[in-house]
Amino acid sequence: MHYVSPDEDSARWDDFRFRAGDIVVSTRSKSGTTWAQTICALLLHGPRLPAPLSALSPWLDHTIRPIDEVVADLEGQAHRRIVKTHTPLDGVPVDPRATYLVMGRHPLDLAVSLYHQSDNIDRGRLAELTGVPARPRTERPSLHDWLVAWTRADTTPQEQMDSLVGVLHHVSDAWERQHHQHVVLVHYADLLADLEGEMRRIADRLGAPIAESTWPALVEAATFESMRSRSDDLVPDAMGVLKDRSRFFRSGTSGNGRAVLSADELREYEARVTGLAPAEVVAWLHR
Q1: Measured distance CA(217)–CA(278) in Å, rounded
Q2: How far is 220 from 244, CA to CA, in rounded Å?
Q3: Nearest 5°: CA angle at 259, between 196 and 141?
Q4: Rounded to two decimals, what is the model's pTM?
Q5: CB-based burial of residue 113 (10 Å sphere; 0-12 exposed, 13-18 middle, 19+ buried)?
Q6: What percent of the chain has pLDDT over 90?
Q7: Residue 166 is part of which domain span?
Q8: Residue 263, CB half-sphere, CA atoms under 13 Å: how many?
Q9: Catalytic sites, residue numbers
């Protein structure tokens, strides 16, 4: 499946050559991508990362940099590689030598974060880097009105990966593959509830041995507060696309999305979700 947006193109994976031990972090936007990348990097490199996260874990299908430069950076890494993508697994080569970590988050919480993130993107700078003209500015709807429209949008994952349809497709596709040893599903809420337990599970699935004495420092480095304090090293903004890096780590909580909608709007949302994804996927995302 080919996925393309104004600043992403899954066809760029054609230029990437896998090797044993590769890790692919595949998430929908604002599902905990940077959190997952940080955890993987900490498990491989220890509490003090040797380079900024965007260098350790490049975003392969982001078109703001030429693909040959991104591939060259990855080829030059002697350690296990962590590749970031927002492409669902049906748009990424699935190589048995790699491990694919897919994050899930309550769709409404994801959408609220997406709304705020969108306001922090420098559209002029993005257009300069991608060569795709920025869309004309229009009056932005309120969070409530935007969220209602987001839940109702009639589209496809290929047309709008960050739509509700796209979010549910991304997770549903990974859910069908989770019986494979190399596909790992992680829920944002589980990281909030038991960060150390989830990190230990991820380490086990990655085959990353960790000295017991190192765990406290690793877990502390993966907390939301710690990551926010190191935003210059962790925020994915090497090319200056964000207006304000300090706004990237906004709240790190769950439940914000449901608070925005009325009871009738929530029922409408839940009915739509039920028609777009298997019941077990919906239950997993909503827990």
Answers
A1: 39
A2: 25
A3: 115
A4: 0.92
A5: buried
A6: 78
A7: 4-286
A8: 0
A9: 86
Q: d(Cα 209, Cα 46) in Å, to the nearest integer?
A: 11
Going by the DSSP 8-state scheme, the letter that residue 217 receives in this structure is H
- Give helix then strand counts, H and E, for the chain: 15, 6
Residue 62 DSSP symbol:
B
> How confident is residue 251, by pLDDT bands cut at 50, 70 and 90?
low
Q: Which residues pair with 5 in a beta bridge?
A: 8
More confident residue, 28 or 242: 28
The per-residue pLDDT for 138 is: 77
CATH number, domain at 15? 3.40.50.300
Residue 84: C-alpha distances to residues 134, 199, 216 (Å): 24, 18, 26
Question: In Å, what is the CA distance from 116 to each residue of 113, 186, 242?
Answer: 5, 23, 12
How many domains does the chain divide into?
1
Question: Model confidence over 207-242: pLDDT tens digits?
Answer: 999 999 999 999 999 999 999 999 889 888 777 777
C-alpha 2 chain-centroid distance: 18
Structure confidence at residue 240 (pLDDT): 77
